[in-house]
Amino acid sequence: MILVTGGAGYIGSHCALKLLEENKKVIVFDNFSTGHIETIETLMKEGKDNFEFFEGNLLNLNDLDALFKDRNIEAVIHFAAYSLVEESMKNPEKYYRNNVIGSINLLDKMRQYNVSRIVFSSTAATYGEPKEIPIKETHPQNPINPYGNSKLTVEKIMDDYDEAYNIKSVRLRYFNVAGCDDKTRIGEIHNPETHLIPNILKSTFNNKKTFKIFGDDYNTKDGTCIRDYINVEDLINAHILALNYLSAGGKTDFFNLGTNEGNSVKEIFDLCTKVTNKEIPFEIAQKRAGDPAILIADNKKAKEILGWNPEKTLYDSIKSAYMWELKQNK
Ligand code: UDP
Description:
- The chain has a domain at 2-179 and 229-258: Rossmann fold (3-Layer(aba) Sandwich).
- 41% of the residues lie in helices and 17% in strands.
- It is built from 11 helices and 13 strands.
- α9 crosses α11 (314-328).
- The structure holds uridine-5'-diphosphate (UDP).
- Uridine-5'-diphosphate (UDP) is lined by residues 85, 176, 194-196, 199, 212-214, 225, 227, 265, 288, 291.
């Protein structure tokens, strides 16, 4: 069975669903700090006997003992983490405690119960301010916020745990994840929502919310920030490939997950108006602290070593995200 931590959240739940579709046995561990019970109910319905849920906290060693004891966990995919840059700057303690100590607890229990493979959600935020675009995995890692630092610290711990305890890891450095399950069984739910695409889409509903573009005087073609938006289903495929790679004896490694292409906030906004066929109210607002002007992945390494092949377009991602928002607003 595969352990998915954070499987009640946005990306973790898409991973659990994909594993279940591949007929794998899955146990999700989540404390609902940002995840949702409705998501777990959907996974239960979809996975039936192959799915198990364990409510628990990575900071509680008793929870972890109860999780690992008497279960045949072959590998771990570790999503459970806090992931908001701005929040991490205001409350670093929360990020270091949960993301770093939580991961150490998990790795130690893996050691204790002889589980030797882990796929870890890392982030482009570990690179900090980019020195060259697109960003290769060899780019220096100098995070500029506690969120990025917390993820980089775990990456380093994983190298040391491989060296000393032979725990093999694949760290996947996500760029901007977008879209949702094609069948809209699960999707993105954040409270408050801070991400670009769901925020634009939410402004199409009659809630009088004006979408805010955070800064239009960046040094980019149209003045708004450029990001590399990777579809969540494509992203999850890389996790499955990473698991297979580790099962086949692959060495500890790390890969960017992005598309090699960047789109500006304005371009995303225009595409959202096209997909939804609606006039979306917007205004230009202040820049958000800690936002680099451009982040684009070089994804060659994941293609070459994992055999990854992202296929979905940005249009696909926005379309599925919109279908999900429509479902939420029924
Ligand atoms: N952004 C924006 N308005 C919003 C949310 C985001 O202009 O309501 C911009 C943000 O400044 C960044 C890009 O959209 O340049 C992507 O932000 P998001 O929070 O989705 O992801 P991040 O890049 O922070 O991981």
